[in-house]
């Protein structure tokens, strides 16, 4: 018996890295998973990799019409949602004094605005007692140089969670934030060169970045009844980088 038997889960940004690892694990634990991503080819590849109990929808989480289409697909195929992992995100280095409007708007459009409307548009389909969690970043906790805009766009998520816990308490819907540190993933490869990766690894006690599967196992905890008494929390999964 799986921990998510009979559940319906939606994972945005679920075509690579830790979110894709989570989608695979959720299916193994009995869920039907809807994944979204901006690129159709990436969505199709992820669906083929997962292999069963998965529906892929091309959708940009910063685009409200795309979000409507995502949740209309969920409504037509399954009718309800038990678990939402709002994981779609974006970020790049942006040094104070050189930050552009485009960099600011790109980060906040997906990470802050997109996450909010993903949750809001999911609510009409959400079952009472379900679980919502969002992907944060330990960049919002450590103050890494040149990552101020990205860090700020992720720092809003714990504030959302605290407020939404109060607003959704009558429906017993839990809201948490899963905050990873550096995780070896395609997205990280896009924004960091080898030297920068080595610098980040130097602050992790084990001197090694996280693996997508390590984040996926924590996502399963938040999605399942194992975390039934965890609500309004930011769960940091960064190998100890923020405490030393």
Note down, in words, how this protein is organized.
The chain is 45% helix and 18% strand. It has a 7-stranded parallel β-sheet, with helices on both faces. The protein is of the alpha/beta class and 244 residues long. The protein contains 9 helices and 7 strands; from the N terminus they run E-H-E-H-E-H-E-H-E-H-H-E-H-H-H-E. The chain is globular, with a radius of gyration of 17 Å.
Write the layout of secondary structure elements.
Blueprint: E1 8-12, H1 17-28, E2 32-37, H2 40-50, E3 54-58, H3 64-77, E4 81-86, H4 101-122, E5 126-135, H5 139-142, H6 148-167, E6 174-180, H7 186-191, H8 194-201, H9 212-223, E7 234-237
Parallel strand pairs: 1-2, 1-4, 2-3, 4-5, 5-6, 6-7
Helix pairs in contact: 1-9, 3-4, 4-6
With helices defined by DSSP (H or I, 4 residues minimum), what is the helix count? 9
Shape: globular
- Alpha-carbon distance between the two ends: 39 Å
What's the alpha carbon Rg, rounded to whole Å? Answer: 17 Å
β-sheet strand percentage: 15-25%
Order of neighbouring strands in the sheet with most strands:
3-2-1-4-5-6-7
Structural class: alpha/beta
Highlighted features:
244 residues; alpha/beta; seven-stranded parallel beta sheet; 9 helices; 18% strand; globular
């Amino acid at each position: 018996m799986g921990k998510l038997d009979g559940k319906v889960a939606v994972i945005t940004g679920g075509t690579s890295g830790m979110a894709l690892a989570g989608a695979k694990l959720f299916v193994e634990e009995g869920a039907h998973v809807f994944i979204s991503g901006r690129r159709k080819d990436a969505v199709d590849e992820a669906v083929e990799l997962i292999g069963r109990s998965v529906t892929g929808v091309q959708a940009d989480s910063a685009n409200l019409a795309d979000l409507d289409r995502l949740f209309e697909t969920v409504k037509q195929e399954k009718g309800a949602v038990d678990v939402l992992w709002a994981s779609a995100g974006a970020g790049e280095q942006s040094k104070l004094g050189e930050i552009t409007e485009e960099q600011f708007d790109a980060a906040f459009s997906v990470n802050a605005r997109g996450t909010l409307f993903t949750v809001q548009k999911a609510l009409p389909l959400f079952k009472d007692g379900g679980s919502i969690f969002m992907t944060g970043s330990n960049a919002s906790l450590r103050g890494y140089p040149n990552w101020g805009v990205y860090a700020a766009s992720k720092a809003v998520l714990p504030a959302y969670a605290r407020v939404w816990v109060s607003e959704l308490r009558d429906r017993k819907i839990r809201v948490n934030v899963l905050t990873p540190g550096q995780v070896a993933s395609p997205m990280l490869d896009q924004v960091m060169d080898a030297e920068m990766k080595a610098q980040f690894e130097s602050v992790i006690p084990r001197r090694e970045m996280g693996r997508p599967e390590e984040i996926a196992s924590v996502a399963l905890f938040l999605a399942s009844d194992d975390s039934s008494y965890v609500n309004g929390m930011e769960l940091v999964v960064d190998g100890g980088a923020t405490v030393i």
